[in-house]
Amino acid sequence: MSDPQKNGPKNLFEIGGRLAIICTVAAIVLALVNAVTAPIIVRNRERELAEALSRIAEHRRVGEAIPIDDHRAVRAIFPVFENDELYGYVVRVIGVGYGGDMAVLVGARLDGYVFAATLMENLETPGLGKKAEAPGYMDKFVGTGADRPVPTRKDQLDASDADAVSGATMTFVGVARAIETASDFVRKME
Amino acid sequence: MSTMTTLTRGVYRENPIFVIMLGLCPALAVSTQVVNALGMGAGVIFVLVCSNAFVSLLKDFIPEKVRIPAYIVIIASFVTVVDLSMQAFAPALSRNLGVFVQLIVVNCVILGRAEAFAAKNTVGSSVLDGIGMGLGFTLALVVIALIREVLGNGTITVFPVGGFDGTFVIPGLSEQPVRIMSLAAGALLVMGYLKGLLNVIEDVRARARSAATRSATRDGGRA
Amino acid sequence: MTYIGIIITFVFINNIILNQFLGLCPFIGVSRNVESAVGMGFAVTFVMSLASLTTWMIHNVVLIPLGIEFLQTITFILVIAGLVQLVEMVIQKISPPLYKALGIYLPLITTNCAVLGIALIAVRNEYGAIESFVAGFAAGVGFLLAILLMSTLREKLDTEWVPKYLRGTPIAFITGGLMALAFMAFDVALLRNLIG
Predict the structure, then answer these.
(1) How close B114 gets to chain A, by Cα (Å)?
(2) Does the beta carbon of C158 lie under 8 angstroms from any beta carbon of chain A?
(3) For the segment B155-195, what is each residue's pLDDT rounded down to a tens digit?
(4) Which terminus of chain C has fewer Cβ atoms in its 10 Å neighbourhood, N or C?
């Protein structure tokens, strides 16, 4: 540590002033960086969401997001229209996985029938939870939710599907519960 | 101190992770894939070099009494620069690293180097010190990630280039991987055994050195 | 998620040390004996609860309305550093015995990534004010639990035979790994059975 005697100001105002100058410069620099990156980040997010939505809705038209504030897991819903008629909703729902929370987009018809789902962002362990990002992972949930319940336990799956989630039970349960919640949410809306 | 030692010290002899054991949290948390380790390492090198340079540059301007808050402001600014640029230009990596990019700010290596080295040395050697320490950090991270990814998932994931998707698959291991290595428990186990291995290496080297000194004295005595 | 759910999640399922790797430095560094581990644990719990609530307020009352979320990292770490100072002064004034017990651990907490970590996680999970506070408190209790178990094990290990090269920190890491393995038994199924 350098000798405090030789080191400059002892006056409180000057000490505070110098610290304030450093903070101000830092804030200005960051504002500039933010001005450059913010539009790109927003565009990235929008593109990601748009891609995910169109993957789920396929040929159908997706309407504006409706934010949901008073639900423990559902964060927003997007109405989906087929031939200008309300077909169902895409639900953005938060599930609990191994590495923390993860966002799942679930497409559900008005009767709760799950027609598609996709994992948005998650902190799952690679090789474990990341399995849920693999194509085809969500197939086992498609077609459930209306007359068949959403499988939320491994023993409700057939052998090949159960194998696909082996070693990643937590992620499976997290995704399954999120999808179940979304399906219930849409069914109970009417 | 020579330029070369300033640079290489952080890589092995004072390696921040294995020897001084600082900055462990990000090291273990993001070491599930090699690509994450590389990305994290790059972020830390950038922050370390910039903060070292600026702390050294401003060492006469920063009042002694508030030096820690001042260092924290400097470090946090560069961390934010890394965080924002990563979100903008490498969104996939930013998603993988998640909250740990912002947590670089509390990586004790960075504040430690600012206080222990940059505040007392010239800008040039502070930059070198930052590069050395950053490389050492990255190296340690990549070693841990390599062990965990190979054993835990049977793959090595680096950057995708052209048609190559960035993942080497190791036949055999990828069908029957040691899953535990991918999990939190695996990270702690790997760290423990690596540190033990390092102790063995240190011991062997120390013995070789003392044997060399002994024989040198004997030769000297004869001559 | 209900408050009980948050508590179970952060104490057991996503234990801040054994699952999220936050706060590893004190976990290894301050776990040599039970007394200091408990002191550190209580100090962290205290600061974490306050910090997650304060940072929630900063984020939702200052940063978002002003549109300056890019200053999140910088404000959060400064708020935590300031908070630690404040807590230190207040404790010193109102309860000298408590200050004597916790005092030396408080400065270490500023650079404890668990405190900033839980504040950032609470914001990312879009928690409300009370949820953030509960998450901070639960994460602190999880930290206390892990470091207490660890220090008890390490005190035992001191009297046991350990291979020469694994003595000290290596065996501490390996012990931590085995503890993390045991904590894997707590999963979402537990949460479902307890609170449905």
Answers:
(1) 12
(2) no
(3) 888 877 766 777 788 887 777 778 788 878 888 999 899 98
(4) C
